[in-house]
Structures are given as structure tokens and as C-alpha cells.
Amino acid sequence: MGKWVDSTVRRRTAGDDGARARRRRHIAEAALLAVDDIGIEAGTAVIAERAEMPRPHIYRYFASREDLDSEMVRLAARRLNDHIRPHLSHRGTPLMVVQGLVEACATWADAHPHLYRLLAARGHSRTLHQARMGRTRLLDEIAVAARGYTNAAPSSFPEGILVGVMGMVDATIIWWLDQRDESLDVMTERLSDHVTLVLLRALSGRGIDLAPAVELEPFVRE
After folding, report:
1. 173: exposed, middle or buried (C-beta count within 10 Å: 0-12, 13-18, 19+)?
2. pLDDT-derived band of residue 135, with 50, 70 and 90 as boundaries?
3. Cβ atoms of residues 196 and 203 within 8 Å
4. Which of 19, 74, 97, 200 is the most exposed place for a label (fewest CB within 10 A)?
5. Which residues contact 8 (CB under 8 A, 6 or more apart)?
6. pLDDT at residue 59, as a whole number
């Protein structure tokens, strides 16, 4: 009898946890839509309306607004990653690869400026960096791709290098979103040049001297 009761309790608890996770996801998705439409100033009243629930009910599923914001950032980062990831399956020179990634990032930001500002406003903590990059470590991927063209073995790169590159990308794109003082194409071309120079220098510092004209194989197979 005791084992049957324990099993029933476990199933009920698992069901409750699953329902709670679904409600959290529903609220976070509603919040993300509100921010996408209105901006990061979207309040809990608007979010509750989008989620079709009373405002106090939000905090049955989130400990605080910070908790909700963190979940929104995670979802926004996943959407940005989903938009960028296909470009890792393209063959090309370092500049071509970087330009594809930068253009994907910039066009997503152009379509979702409030969400991009939300991501950029969170800074570059280790947690956010991991959320934004997922399992993709750009420098490591380039190093692996470069192995066939150099005598150096690829090595792992400090996260700080890539975080610095991401900071440069974010700052440039946010400036462009605010000012729009040049075309998207001009901005992404200039930014791609800068990012490529930084990455090639970082590779060189790790003993991988990669010729700019070398075509790299796709980092991610389709």
C-alpha cells in the first residue's frame, strides 16, 4: 500500500511541476511579446493582460520581476541563436563567415529592436553569454575549422575574448538602432571587418595564423 501511495504522490508531483513549467513558459512568452511590441518598459499589468491572467497570478510562478526578466532573456537569446545558427553551416573565408553571422544578428535586431536592447542591457555575464551562444563557441569552431590549413592544433579560447567581441557587436548595433545614421549594409560591412580583424588576431595569439583568403568548412553540418 505504501509503495502505491508513494508512486501516486510522485506522479502527482511530476504533473504539478510540468504544469508549473508550462505556465511559466506561457507567461514568459507573453512578456516577450509585450516587450517586442512596446519595449523593455512593458509593465506587469500589460504582461498579465497578454497572458490572460490577473496580475497577482504572475508571481505565483515567478519569484520576482527579475526572475521573469531572466526567463525572457533566455527565450530571447534562444530566438536570436535560432536565427544565427543556420549561418554556421555556410562555407567561406573568415570574413565571409563573420559577415554572415553579423548580418544575421543585425537583421534580427532590426526586426526586434526592443528584444535586442533587452539582451544587450543585461550585460555579458557568464550565464547570459552561455545562453546567447548555446553550445557554439565561435573561436573554438574557427580553430577547429582552421586545423586543416595550419600546423597548429586548435585550443580552447578564453570566454572573455568572445564576450569582448560580442560587446563590440552589441554596442555597434545598439548605436545603429538609436541613430540609423547609415544603411544596415554599410554598418554590417564595417562591423564585420572589425570583428574579423579581432578574431584573426586572437587566433594568431594562439598559434593559428589563418590566411584571410582561406575558405573554412562549415562549423555546423546541416
Report:
1. buried
2. very low
3. no
4. 19
5. none
6. 93
Rounded Cα distance, 118 and 156, in Å:
29
Strand, helix or coil at 216? Answer: strand
DSSP letter at 153? P
Grid coordinates of 163: 564576450
Q: Does domain 74-205 have CATH number 1.10.357?
A: yes
Higher pLDDT, 151 or 44: 44
Q: Whole-model pTM?
A: 0.80
List pLDDT tens digits, range 40-99: 999 999 999 999 999 999 999 999 999 999 999 989 988 988 898 888 788 889 899 889
Domain ranges of the chain: 2-62, 74-205
Q: Which amino acid is at 115?
A: L
Which set of grid coordinates corresponds to residue 122?
A: 543585461
- Residues across the chain: 222
Q: What is the mean pLDDT of the chain?
A: 81
CATH of segment(s) 2-62? 1.10.10
Residue 141 has pLDDT above 80, yes or no: no
Residue 219 near residue 199, CB atoms below 8 Å: no
Cell of 166: 560580442
Angle at which helix 94-111 crosses helix 138-146, to 10 degrees, equals 160
